[in-house]
Amino acid sequence: MENHDHTFNKEVLPLRIKIDHIDSQILCLLAQRQAQVEKVVKLKKEHHVPVYHPAREEDLISKLRLQAGKANLDPDFMEDLYRVILRQSRVKQTGQMEQKAVKPGARILIIGGAGQMGRFFASLFQKSGYEVRILTRKDWTTAGQLCKDIDLALISVPIDKTYDAIEQIAPFLEPATILADLTSIKAGPLAKMLKSHPGPVTGLHPIFGPTSGSLDKQIIVVTPGRDRDHSRWLLEQLTLWGAVIVESSAEEHDEIMEIVQALRHFATFGFGQFLYEKHARLDRTLEFSSPIYRLELGMVGRLFAQDSSLYSEIIFATRERRQLLKDFISSLNAHLEMLEKNDKKLFNEKFNRIAKWFGSFSEQAMRESTFLINKLIERF
């Protein structure tokens, strides 16, 4: 046995030394890659080119998958590896882009700048060298002074405070000042801004939480209001920081957000409430759980780990949203007869009809959810 171990150690040692050498080469190549990225960042800053280039990244991934197959390597492994590398590269680029101002010398006033989202955007503007002023509830007596010579007034307050904030700040704004908001509903606030302020108006909705830490690949919906050319620098700045800009009318935005936000959050709330009413043993269910259940339960737990007022404002924001949720409850109640009759045939008919409606997205959803499930398996 000793001879066997000695022979193994003797034979494996040069292989391990070679592997260590290859690892050092990989690290050296990553450092060289990063050096080239630094040069790209410098060019992007000079020419105001955004960090994220979707077509470029997807082309690169496609080529690498093809090369991996030819090299007898797992294409999925190669894609996962390079997604991490590209993500790290983007974050580093975004961090440096945060120091670049599209409109140097501009002055920014954030109404509600003491809140989480307000602080997040204040930090971004400050890192890029902008002068940032903050207006909170106790500062309205100095609103006129705070608004002097500002280029952008950005409203970042709860939905139910937005209309009052617009009405209060508008009289202090100069004609060339951009008035924008970060509210998660757009039709009402946009109309209010257009009515209250004769100058440039833009609606913004960041589709992410303030804890994200970066705008890398984060979506911001833009609902144009008035004088788009005058507001262009603001959108260019957001893009430079790594955001993905999606343009929409205020009406389309609100209709889609009824599904994306209100319905999703309410359905999650309903699932959590049912588990609570049934006294479900969460810790025990996790011991029996599949990765997909852990993922679903994680989204429920995530909701209840946050401020209830944030979600109540989103869910109850408009009459249309509340009506949609009542329709959702009615839809669930319509399944009671099917359950009472144990009608599997009807279930299958409905299932197949809905599956056909989902179409090719189902395949995409399968790929994406499988990726998330595999990541959970790696962690837990």
- Helix content estimate: 55-70%
Distance between the termini: 37 Å
Written as H for each helix and E for each strand, in order along the chain, the element string is: HHHEHEHEHEHEEHEHHHHHHHH
SS-based structural class? alpha/beta
Overall CATH architecture of the largest domain: 3-Layer(aba) Sandwich
Describe the largest sheet: 7 strands, mixed
Please report the number of helical segments.
16
Number of domains: 3
Written account of the structure:
There is one protein chain. This protein has 380 residues and is α/β, with parallel strands linked by helices. It has three domains: 2-97, Chorismate Mutase Domain, subunit A, CATH 1.20.59.10; 107-248, NAD(P)-binding Rossmann-like Domain (Rossmann fold, 3-Layer(aba) Sandwich); 253-379, 6-phosphogluconate dehydrogenase C-terminal like domain (6-phosphogluconate dehydrogenase C-terminal fold). The chain is built from 16 helices and seven strands. Strand 3 (152-155), helix 6 (159-169) and strand 4 (178-181) form a beta-alpha-beta unit. The model has no long low-confidence stretch (mean pLDDT 90).
